[in-house]
Amino acid sequence: MHLIRDSVISEINNILDASVFTRHAFTTAFNNKEKSQVISITFKEIDNFRFVVEEMNDKTWHVFECPGKTFITGEETACNVFNDCIKRIRPWLTRLLEECVVNIEEPAEILAHMRVNLEHQANELPKPDEPFGTEEALQWQQKLDSLVEELEKLKEANEIQDFEIGTLRKDLESLKNQVYNMPKKLWFLSAGNKILNALERVSNSKLLEKLLQSATLALLIENASHGGSQ
Description:
Layout: H1 6-18, E1 26-32, E2 37-43, E3 50-57, E4 60-66, E5 75-79, H2 82-87, H3 89-124, H4 134-156, H5 162-178, H6 184-202, H7 205-213, H8 218-221
Helix pairs in contact: 3-6, 4-5, 5-6
């Protein structure tokens, strides 16, 4: 297996640094004899996005790029000149940025739909001007506790910072105490908007997807009547 020189590795790192991401956004590995991978670059935020060069034989290099020029799932190319492999890194970084711009926009759209849904559910609550009954109030308190637990897990996994959820934690604790006293609709809208405001501050598509997959956002995505009937 051919091994690339340190000067070539520096050139690749300089290409990554010149991008909007910088090299710190990537996990890189070079000269992996076990996998016959001369270059391996993985985007940390979305690890499916990779650029890999493998040595096939003395005259051919296999390049895998995800996202590809045409397909989001990636594309494979054979290069007969090694420098042609390196030339493909910059276009790959451009496509990567394009996909990340799309990913950044998606949470805003999701949250906008959730705000509309929140208002709709609030209007569907039975007897919206009265407080929740004891059993209902306990159910909503448990849902808020579950959401805080989910955020704490993300904090422990270093996917979210403590200061990003500190305000939400305090707000939800206050709302838990008010669930017996506030009118249903007012409390429901207050709790929902507090949660959405927090998600708006910290959300990226990956984080929001994890939260949406859990039951903790039932407050916003299930039918309000499930927790609002007498």
